[in-house]
């Protein structure tokens, strides 16, 4: 056969796609592209090198034709970026010699089919145990990667290929457990099983299967597994790995074991990549390391990294990635022990601080340095280019920089605290391809003309500094190789023209500038066949024509002034669409139903009207976020939520939706946020949602829900619920005591790591009534625990079990018909910050235990039938009359009504207060002023309580007052 589907253009597509997406994608996804590209190249060489062979056997030709006919030919949207440069399967027919088919390799002597390369052949369908594929008994090479087998199992029959040496099953939509029978392939040299979808892992490898692979596959040299579940493995699983292994690639596999030291001692091991396994731990061996180890990636793992010890023993290391790791020792000591043979070094995300110790880095021949996402400070040293020799020599008053290698192709320093001007030597690095200086505090002017001298430059990031760009829009600058351009927050007031010649542009970020008016038409000529990310958010743009880019994957138009219909025509590979905070109108286009790769769809805060298309329930198995809040949508909710979907956040708040909740929502097993507040929904309490294992936020406020909540139908109902808002409905009956008993996440949230809910391209937010104020939290902390059942028709007593929800920060039962006394167990809610029980029929005395609440900042017990003295002390001394008004039989501070048992009016708090009031009033100071001051302090307290700093140290508000 002659395998001829590759070309120089497809090679360039893969190279450029991989190069840039390393930063845009997660580590595993990028590695998928790298490995699949190498496999494709290797198979291309092998399949194209075949000389004349005998004609194929008729039975094998029939088997191939039968296998081909069992599938439809169509590349799904989810594989477009991987497969767009490859044709589908070539014509096969009965009259031709199957050994001449481009996907087939035959033995030169016997004519048997020994190789079948169906990489990216567009196969869609399932594989069954009686598939004719398993009749090709002589197969040695099989690649089914880049197809869609629709969740088929990896069948035990794959273990029948006794002569198999290379098996590639990546990005093929398999599911289930890897069969033990794979370990029967005793001649196997290379096994690759890598999946793209990190959100919905479908493939598992059991401990027994992995140990059988390690034990039986003694010829195995390359084992590459990614985005599959290997959480059942233990340290023992790695004890008997094949001594033939040269490449071990276990990326994002949920490993939780302690890695055996023996792995580092495998004699032929050259590449070890274990990144994105945060619970994988281990220690380095003291001796007998593999002398062949060249590539090591332990990023995002739980390893304790002793870098001097590592470099002392792994003397052949040239490519070292240790981002987001746990280092042993001080930062200067760590960085002073680097060895000159390292050509690629990634130390991102390790909280290193101080100045970058350029003099001691000892990396004369480095081609890639990544120190991003640390806390480095100071300036980059600058010298005159005349003083620089073969390796750049710097002399400054603060630093003597011995070596900045002129061989550098990649320099990443983003997300630090670096200051000063960008030094002139940056413009003179002859091989520089990637320059990332974003999210620092650099100042001064950047001359685009000087940057255009970097002929190899493919990635430029100057975002979020204090820089000004100097360019002339009438000059044609040469940026022909530019693949990624990020100029967010660069003080731009117009579209810069200098990248007009960048025909292969893949990423363009001009967000957070002051660009006004229409998106220029010349932009449509940029990156026509390559642009996959466009970010124009946070500008003042008013018009954009329908988008022409068929490769577009990520589009952010949010926070602009766009109006009219959505500019989406045909973008089948679109994965992220952000269009919130605009004035888009009209109906949601039906073309969305064809976007089967969409993962995040946020069109909130617009003027969209019409009905929510039914297809939005099942059009994409990858959809994790659907946010259509604050539009003018009407009709009913989609009823088509399919089993196995990936939906994590559904927000349709503030529309005009009606009808009942679709029962198919119970299929959304990954759902964390369900916000349907402020609509016209009419239903009973959806207790059938209680089985959702991940649901954290449930907001049904301001609808027409009715009836009693009732009791749970299962044990451990709503196990992860943290925010429950059922306010402003027509619920009645008693409060749901049995549900409160099941809210386990509200009992021990202090054990939960403080994080914000959301993902890379979308941040969950929620509207809450907090301390008497209506507030939108634009970030949701995982430790925020609130219950709001206000403004309903609940009756009966407040259950004492509420006191077990010790992580509660807010509790609102106001405006109901609750009676009985306030349970003293509320004094156990030591994290409580606000409590509102107003406008009920509560009687009895205020429990003195409430004074033990250390964080209580807002209390409203007004409009009840409470009696007796108001407890005093601690936080209770800060509350005003408003907290206790309209309780006729309450007395004591801060009310003016004295308690009968007060025998010494002169010494009572209220009497003393009255005396002070009279005195202060004469001086122009009244309690109205005090309350006003308290209100200002209260607002400030809330604001500061939810004030956060991002990793670059720049502050950002996370709440919005309404």
Automatic annotation (TrEMBL):
Q: Which residues cross the membrane?
A: 925-950
Q: What is its main location?
A: membrane
Membrane topology designation = Single-pass type I membrane protein
Q: Which Pfam families does the record associate with it?
A: LRR_1 (PF00560), LRR_8 (PF13855), LRRNT_2 (PF08263)
Under the heading InterPro entries, the entry gives: Leu-rich_rpt (IPR001611), Leu-rich_rpt_typical-subtyp (IPR003591), LRR_dom_sf (IPR032675), LRR_N_plant-typ (IPR013210), RLP23-like (IPR046956)
User: Which keywords annotate this record?
Assistant: Cell membrane, Glycoprotein, Leucine-rich repeat, Membrane, Receptor, Repeat, Signal, Transmembrane, Transmembrane helix
Q: Residue limits of the Leucine-rich repeat-containing N-terminal plant-type domain?
A: 57-107
> Which SMART domains does its entry note?
LRR_TYP
Q: Where in the cell is it found?
A: Cell membrane
Under the heading Gene3D superfamilies, the entry gives: Ribonuclease Inhibitor
**Might you report a single GO cellular component term?**
plasma membrane
Q: Which PANTHER family match?
A: LEUCINE-RICH REPEAT RECEPTOR PROTEIN KINASE EMS1-LIKE-RELATED (PTHR48061), LEUCINE-RICH REPEAT-CONTAINING N-TERMINAL PLANT-TYPE DOMAIN-CONTAINING PROTEIN (PTHR48061:SF46)
| Stated family | Belongs to the RLP family.
What name does this protein carry?
A: LRR domain containing protein
């Amino acid at each position: 056969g002659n395998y001829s589907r590759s070309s120089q253009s497809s090679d360039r597509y893969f190279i450029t796609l991989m190069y840039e997406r390393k930063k845009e994608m997660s580590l595993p996804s990028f590695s998928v592209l790298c490995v699949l590209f190498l496999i494709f190249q290797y198979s291309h060489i092998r399949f194209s090198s075949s000389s004349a062979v005998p004609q194929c056997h008729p039975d094998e030709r029939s088997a191939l034709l039968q296998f081909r006919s069992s599938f439809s030919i169509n590349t799904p949207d989810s594989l477009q970026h991987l497969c767009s440069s490859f044709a589908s399967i070539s014509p096969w027919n009965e009259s031709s010699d199957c050994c001449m088919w481009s996907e087939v390799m035959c033995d030169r002597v016997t004519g048997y089919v020994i190789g079948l390369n169906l990489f990216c052949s567009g196969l869609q369908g399932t594989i069954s145990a009686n598939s004719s594929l398993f009749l090709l008994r002589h197969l040695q090479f099989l690649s089914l990667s880049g197809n869609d087998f629709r969740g088929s199992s990896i069948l035990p029959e794959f273990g029948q290929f006794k002569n198999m040496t290379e098996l590639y099953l990546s990005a093929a939509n398999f599911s289930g457990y890897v069969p033990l029978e794979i370990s029967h392939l005793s001649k196997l040299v290379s096994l690759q099983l890598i999946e793209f979808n990190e959100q919905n892992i479908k493939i598992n490898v059991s401990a027994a299967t992995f140990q059988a692979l390690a034990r039986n596959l003694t010829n195995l040299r390359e084992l590459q597994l990614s985005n599959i579940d290997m959480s059942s493995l233990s340290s023992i699983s790695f004890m008997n790995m094949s001594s033939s292994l040269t490449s071990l690639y276990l990326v994002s596999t949920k490993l939780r074991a302690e890695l055996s030291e023996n792995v580092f001692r495998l004699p032929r091991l050259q590449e070890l990549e274990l990144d994105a396994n945060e619970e994988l731990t281990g220690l380095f061996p003291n001796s007998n390391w593999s002398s062949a180890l060249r590539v090591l990636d332990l990023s995002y793992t739980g390893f304790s990294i002793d870098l001097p010890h590592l470099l002392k023993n792994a003397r052949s290391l040239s490519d070292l990635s240790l981002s987001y790791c746990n280092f042993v020792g001080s930062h200067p000591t760590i960085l002073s022990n680097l060895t000159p043979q390292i050509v690629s070094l990634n130390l991102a995300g390790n909280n290193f601080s101080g100045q970058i110790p350029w003099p001691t880095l000892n990396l004369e021949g480095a081609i890639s340095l990544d120190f991003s996402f640390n806390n480095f400070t100071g300036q980059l040293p600058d010298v005159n280019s005349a003083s620089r020799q073969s390796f750049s020599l710097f002399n400054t008053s603060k630093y003597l920089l011995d070596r900045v290698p002129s061989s550098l192709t990649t320099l990443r320093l983003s997300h630090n605290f670096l200051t000063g001007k960008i030094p002139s030597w940056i413009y003179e690095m002859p091989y520089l391809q990637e320059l990332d200086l974003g999210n620092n505090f650099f100042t001064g002017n950047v001359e685009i003309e000087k940057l255009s001298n970097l002929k190899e430059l493919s990635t430029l990031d100057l975002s979020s500094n204090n820089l000004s760009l100097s360019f002339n829009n009438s000059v044609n600058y040469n940026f022909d190789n530019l693949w990624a351009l990020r100029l967010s927050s660069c003080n731009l007031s117009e579209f810069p023209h200098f990248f007009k010649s960048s025909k292969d542009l893949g990423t363009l970020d001009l967000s957070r500038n002051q660009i006004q008016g229409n998106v220029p038409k010349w932009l449509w000529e940029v990156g026509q066949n390559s642009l996959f990310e466009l970010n124009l958010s946070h500008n003042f743009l008013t018009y954009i024509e329908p988008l022409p880019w068929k490769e577009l994957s990520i589009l952010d138009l949010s926070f602009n002034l766009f109006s009219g219909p959505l500019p989406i025509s045909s973008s089948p590979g679109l994965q992220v669409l952000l269009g919130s905070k605009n004035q888009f109108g009209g109906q949601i286009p039906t073309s969305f139903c064809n976007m089967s790769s969409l993962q995040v769809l946020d069109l909130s805060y617009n003027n969209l009207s019409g009905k929510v298309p039914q297809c939005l329930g099942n059009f994409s198995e990858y959809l994790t976020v659907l946010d259509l809040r604050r539009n003018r949508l009407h009709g009913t909710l989609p009823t088509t939520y399919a089993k196995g979907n990936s939906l994590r956040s559904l927000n349709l708040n503030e529309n005009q939706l009606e009808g009942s909740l679709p029962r198919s929502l119970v299929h959304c097993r990954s759902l964390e946020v369900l916000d349907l507040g402020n609509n016209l929904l009419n239903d009973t309490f959806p207790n059938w949602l209680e089985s959702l294992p991940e649901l954290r936020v449930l907001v049904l406020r301001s609808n027409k829900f009715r009836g009693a909540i009732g009791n749970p139908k299962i044990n451990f109902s709503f196990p992860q619920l943290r925010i429950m808002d059922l306010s402003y409905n027509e619920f009645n009956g008693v409060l749901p005591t049995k549900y409160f008993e099941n809210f386990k996440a509200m009992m021990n949230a202090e054990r939960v790591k403080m994080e914000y809910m959301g993902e890379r391209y979308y941040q969950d937010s929620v509207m809450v009534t907090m301390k008497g104020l209506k507030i939108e939290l634009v970030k949701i902390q995982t430790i925020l625990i609130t219950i709001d059942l206000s403004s309903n028709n609940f009756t009966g007593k407040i259950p004492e079990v509420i006191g077990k929800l010790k992580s509660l920060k807010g509790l609102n039962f106001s405006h109901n018909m609750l009676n009985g006394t306030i349970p003293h167990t509320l004094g156990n809610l030591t994290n409580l910050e606000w409590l509102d029980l107003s406008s009920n029929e509560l009687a009895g005395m205020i429990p003195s235990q409430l004074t033990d609440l250390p964080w209580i900042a807002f209390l409203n017990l007004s409009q009840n039938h409470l009696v007796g003295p108001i407890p005093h002390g601690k936080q209770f001394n800060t509350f005003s009359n408003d907290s206790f008004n309209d309780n006729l039989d309450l007395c004591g501070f801060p009310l003016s009504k004295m308690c009968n048992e007060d025998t010494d009016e002169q010494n009572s708090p209220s009497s003393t207060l009255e005396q002070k009031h009279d005195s202060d009033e004469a001086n122009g100071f009244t309690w109205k002023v005090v309350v006003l001051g308290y209100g200002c302090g209260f607002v400030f307290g809330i604001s500061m309580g939810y004030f956060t700093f991002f990793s670059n140290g720049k502050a950002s508000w996370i709440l919005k007052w309404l």
